[in-house]
Amino acid sequence: MSTVEGLDLGALKRFFAESVPGFRGELHAELVQGGRSNLTYRLTDGRSGWVLRRPPLGGLTPSAHDMAREYRVISALADSGVPVARAVAFGDAEVLGVPFALVEYVDGLVIRTEADLEPWPDRTVTDCAYALVDVLARLHAVEPAAVGLDGFGRAEGYLARQVARWYDQWQRVRTRELPDVEALHVRLARACPPESGASVVHGDFRVDNAILDRTNPSRVRALVDWEMATLGDPLADLGLHLVYADPAFAPVLGGRAASTSPRLPGPADLAERYAVASGRGLENLGYYIALGYFKIAVIAEGIHARHRQGLTLGSGFETVGDAPAPLAAAGLHALRRYP
Q: What is the pLDDT of residue 311?
């Protein structure tokens, strides 16, 4: 394509010539459908392939679109045993007007919808779900200092900061009054438990943020979408992963999200798998699930706000605004399991 919205191909060609070894001089790009936050593009020069990630056209939730953070954690995890794409180059705002991260293209299967699961037998679907949880446990077992991430964030006080940060984002992006979102924030702030530990956390761990092997979906080839990664409480990752199984999340992905499929193991089974794989206790899991609901409700409202302003690219955004209210209500319900 000669023009692609959100990219300046002329500026990118100059950047590639200076920063990407082996670049052949021609560059073609296409928007990858499926992104609801940062924009994702596949690029090729006819021989090699890359993926470029940049913030959305309307950066309404700044802390959720940190390209430098994404690039740093991918680079650090390259030899850790956690599957990631190879980091290639980081571009500052002088090239495209916004920072961006460039990684190698990893060929594989991305399962976004329930329809994407249909070709696979139930056993394979189950194995895939458990493989993802095993990779999450592997991520949480990485010693941050051993991979150069000891200064990647402040693990202490992570939960309280998450509650405050996502409420601040809510104030930025909200398009209407939603009492359950306000009530959930108050409850989360008051009920914050002692943290379960500290690790590298992905921040948005779900099935469609993984590239799977095309012939064996139980093999994870790469985890993607690392812009919210930091050091923090690992159970926050687990709680969010379990939230993605709730059908209330489906409108965020335009309908029948793969993560909400009844063919996948249920939240209790996934939590038990994680406990065994990680060796961690799951005390106060209801709180972490409620925090996950709060976070996704705010993210969904931000996507809805950008869509209303005409700042989204691609399709499937019409239903996102239906998600925040039921997600917040589900978060309040989850807190009933926590005193």
A: 65
Helices (H), the chain: 9-19, 67-76, 93-96, 114-117, 122-141, 158-173, 179-190, 234-243, 267-278, 285-308, 324-335
The string of pLDDT tens digits covering residues 286-308 is: 999 999 999 999 999 988 888 77
Q: φ and ψ at 295, to 5 degrees?
A: -60, -45
Helix (H, G, I), strand (E, B) or coil at 44: strand
Query: What pLDDT is stored for residue 56 in this prediction?
Result: 82
Q: Considering only CA atoms, which of 174, 296, 173, 170 is closest in space to residue 243?
A: 296
Residue ranges, CATH 3.90.1200.10, the chain: 114-335
The model's pLDDT over 225-238, given as tens digits with 9 standing for 90+, comes to 998 999 999 999 99
Pick the CATH number of 114-335 from 2.40.440.10, 3.90.1200.10, 3.20.20.80, 1.10.443.10: 3.90.1200.10
Asked whether the predicted pLDDT for residue 58 surpasses 90, the reply is no
- Residue 287 bridge partners (DSSP): none
CA dihedral in degrees (10, 15, 18, 20; nearest 10)? -110
CATH number of 9-104: 3.30.200.20
Q: Does residue 83 contact residue 222 with C-beta atoms inside 8 Å?
A: yes
**Burial (0-12, 13-18, 19+ Cβ within 10 Å), 104:** middle
Please name which of 95, 104, 92 lies closest in space to residue 7, comparing C-alpha atoms: 95
b/e map of 273-284 (b: 16 or more CB within 10 Å)? bbbebbebebeb
Q: What band does 117 get if pLDDT is binned at 50, 70 and 90?
A: very high
Distance CA 75, CA 251 (A): 33
Q: Where in the chain is the domain with CATH 3.30.200.20?
A: 9-104
Mean per-residue pLDDT over the chain, rounded: 91
